[in-house]
Specification:
Elements lengths: L5 H16 L54 H65 L1 H9 L5 H4 L20 E7 L6 E7 L9 E7 L8 E5 L3 E6 L6 E6 L4 E5 L9 E2 L11 E7 L8 E6 L3 E8 L2 E9 L18 E6 L6 E6 L4 E5 L8 E3 L6 E6 L6 E6 L3 E6 L7 E4 L4 E6 L6 E6 L3 E6 L9 E4 L30
Length: about 500
C-alpha cells in the first residue's frame, strides 16, 4: 500500500485551486430575432437630386443706325405753310368720309326701296296665296276632313260600350322640333284656330320659347309664330277679343300678344317693377272686365301667388289676390310657414268670384276673390302634385281633378270626399270635361294613352282607352276640346323627355 507523499498532496491542492479560480461557463440564451415590420402604406424613402442645367450666356451686337446731322432755320412763313398743308389734308379726309357715307346712304335707301316694294308685292299677293294654300291643303286632306265631320265606325254595333279614337291631322313645325309642348287652347270665337305653347319642363334645359297659332284649314304650317326669350308654359285666348293672347313664361313674367300687330314683341309685358312672379307661371286665365271696364287676367305660379293683371295704357299692373300658404299641423305653430307651390286653377262657370287652386302638395283650395286672407275650404285631394282642376260645364257643384298619383277624382264642392275615383295606372297630365255633355270627360296619361269616360253609361270603366303616341319618346301632357263642334278632339302632345 502506497502512501501519498507530501508532494502529491500539494499537486492535488494546486489542481483544486486552479479549478476554483477558472471562470465558470454560464449558459446564455439569445432573444429570438424579431421579424422586420413592413410598412402598410408602402412608403419608401429615397433621396433624389435634380439635374441643374449649366448656365449659358449669349450676347449679340448690332450695328448702330446711321446718323446724320440736320440743321434748319424755321421762319414764320414756313410755320404758316406747314399749318396750311395740315389743314388741307384734314379737309380732304373729311370730304372722303362724307362721300363714303353718302354712298352707303344711297345703297341703304336703294335696299329699303327694294324691300318696301317686295313687302308691298307680298301684301298684295299674300292673302290670295294663303287662300290658294288652304285650298291645296283641303284638297290634299279632303278624306280627313270628311272623316272629321261624318266618320262613323261600322264596328260600333258589335263593340257595345267600347269606342275608338280616329287620328286626324298631325300639326308640326320645323321651329318647334327642339321644344316640348306645354299648353294648348282653342280660340273661343274661331273654332278652327288653336294656340300651342312651346317650352321645356327641364330646369337644366331652359332656352327660348315659341308660340304657334294653327288652323284646322291649314295643318301643314302655323298661321302665326312668335319667338320668345323664355320658355312659354301657359297660354289663353280672350273670350271676347280673339286676337288677344295671355302668356305665362318660365322666368315668371306674363305678357299679352296682339295678333293684329305685325310685330314679334308682346304688346304688354310684366317686369320686376310691376311685381312679376319669381317662379314659372303654370296657368293664365282671362276674366271679365272689372268695374273700371279694364281688361284683366289671372296667373298662378310656383311662388304661391295668384295674381290679377290689369291692362292699363301701355303696362301691366299686378295685384296679388291670394297667397297659398302651407297648411300646418295642429301641434305646429303656423307663424313663418312658407308659401305652397300653386300648379293650376279654374274659375267657376257661373259664380265669377269662386275659383279652385291646386297645389304641389296634393291639396285643392276653394277660394274667393273677396277673401284674400283665407280659404273657403280645403280638400285633401291627392298624395302628389295636382296637375289640373276643371269645373263641370253644366253642373255648378261638380269639378274634376287629376294628379301625378295616377288618379282622376270627381268632386262635389260641398263635400270633402270625392264621389268617384279612377286609377289610370300612370301619371295623369290633364283632364277635360266635354263641351256637350255633363257626364263625359277625357284624361291623358304619361304612358301615351287617352281615356274617355261617360258616367251615364259606365261608372267604373272608360268607354275608350287608346294609345296614341310612343311610350319611350313622347308622353301626353294636355287635352283640349272644341267648343262648338260636338266632338272631343284629343291633341297629341309630343313632349320630348
Amino acid at each position: 500500500m502506497e502512501i501519498p507523499g507530501e508532494e502529491d498532496l500539494e499537486v492535488e491542492q494546486e489542481g483544486e485551486e486552479a479549478e476554483k479560480d477558472a471562470p465558470k461557463e454560464v449558459a446564455v440564451t439569445k432573444p429570438p430575432e424579431q421579424a422586420a415590420l413592413r410598412n402598410q402604406f408602402n412608403y419608401s424613402e429615397r433621396a433624389s437630386q435634380t439635374f441643374n442645367n449649366p448656365y449659358r450666356e449669349r450676347g449679340t451686337s448690332t450695328e448702330p443706325p446711321p446718323r446724320t446731322n440736320f440743321t434748319a432755320t424755321a421762319n414764320q412763313w414756313e410755320i404758316y405753310d406747314a399749318y396750311v398743308e395740315d389743314l388741307e389734308a384734314q379737309e380732304k379726309a373729311k370730304e372722303k368720309k362724307s362721300r363714303d357715307k353718302d354712298d352707303k346712304d344711297k345703297k341703304s335707301k336703294a335696299i329699303i326701296v327694294e324691300t318696301s316694294a317686295a313687302d308691298e308685292m307680298f301684301t298684295r299677293i299674300g292673302k290670295p296665296a294663303k287662300i290658294v294654300e288652304r285650298m291645296v291643303n283641303q284638297n290634299t286632306h279632303d278624306e280627313i276632313a270628311q272623316d272629321f265631320k261624318y266618320w262613323e265606325d261600322a264596328s260600333d254595333e258589335f263593340k257595345g260600350n267600347e269606342g275608338t279614337l280616329l287620328p286626324l291631322w298631325p300639326f308640326k313645325s320645323e321651329k318647334a322640333k327642339k321644344f316640348s309642348v306645354t299648353a294648348v287652347v282653342f280660340n273661343p270665337i274661331y273654332d278652327d284656330m288653336f294656340a300651342v305653347a312651346h317650352g321645356s319642363y327641364d330646369f337644366l334645359k331652359q332656352s327660348s320659347g315659341l308660340i304657334c297659332i294653327y288652323s284646322l284649314k291649314n295643318p301643314s304650317f302655323p298661321e302665326f309664330t312668335y319667338v320668345t326669350d323664355s320658355g312659354v308654359m301657359s297660354i289663353d285666348f280672350h273670350p271676347e277679343h280673339p286676337y288677344l293672347i295671355a302668356v305665362g313664361f318660365y322666368d315668371g313674367a306674363v305678357a299679352v300678344y296682339n295678333l293684329r300687330e305685325k310685330t314679334n314683341s308682346p304688346a304688354y309685358l310684366s317686369c320686376a317693377k310691376s311685381g312679376k312672379h319669381t317662379d314659372p307661371v303654370w296657368q293664365v286665365y282671362w276674366q271679365e272686365n272689372d268695374l273700371d271696364n279694364q281688361l284683366n287676367f289671372f296667373s298662378i305660379s310656383s311662388d304661391g301667388r295668384v295674381t290679377c293683371w290689369r291692362l292699363i295704357k301701355n303696362e301691366l299692373q299686378g295685384t296679388d289676390i291670394i297667397l297659398i300658404r302651407m297648411q300646418p299641423d295642429n301641434d305646429v305653430d303656423s307663424v313663418g310657414m312658407d308659401l305652397a307651390c300653386g300648379t293650376c286653377f279654374d274659375f267657376h262657370k257661373s259664380t265669377d268670384y269662386l275659383f279652385l287652386v291646386g297645389t304641389e302638395e296634393g291639396k285643392i283650395h276653394k277660394c274667393s276673390k273677396h277673401y284674400s286672407s283665407q280659404f273657403l275650404d280645403t280638400y285633401d285631394a291627392h298624395h302628389m302634385a295636382v296637375y289640373a282642376v276643371r269645373w263641370n260645364n253644366f253642373h255648378p257643384r261638380v269639378f274634376a281633378s287629376c294628379s301625378a298619383d295616377w288618379t282622376v277624382k270627381i268632386w262635389d264642392h260641398n263635400y270633402s270626399e270625392p264621389m268617384f275615383t279612377f286609377d289610370l295606372g300612370s301619371s295623369v297630365g290633364d283632364v277635360v270635361w266635354s263641351p256637350y255633355s255633363a257626364t263625359v270627360f277625357g284624361a291623358v296619361t304619361d304612358d301615351g294613352q287617352v281615356h274617355i269616360f261617360d258616367l251615364s253609361q259606365e261608372k267604373y270603366e272608360p268607354l275608350c282607352q287608346q294609345s296614341v303616341v310612343q311610350k319611350k319618346k313622347t308622353k301626353m301632357n294636355h287635352l283640349a276640346s272644341i267648343n262648338i263642334i260636338q266632338s272631343l278632339l284629343s291633341e297629341m302632345i309630343e313632349a320630348m323627355l
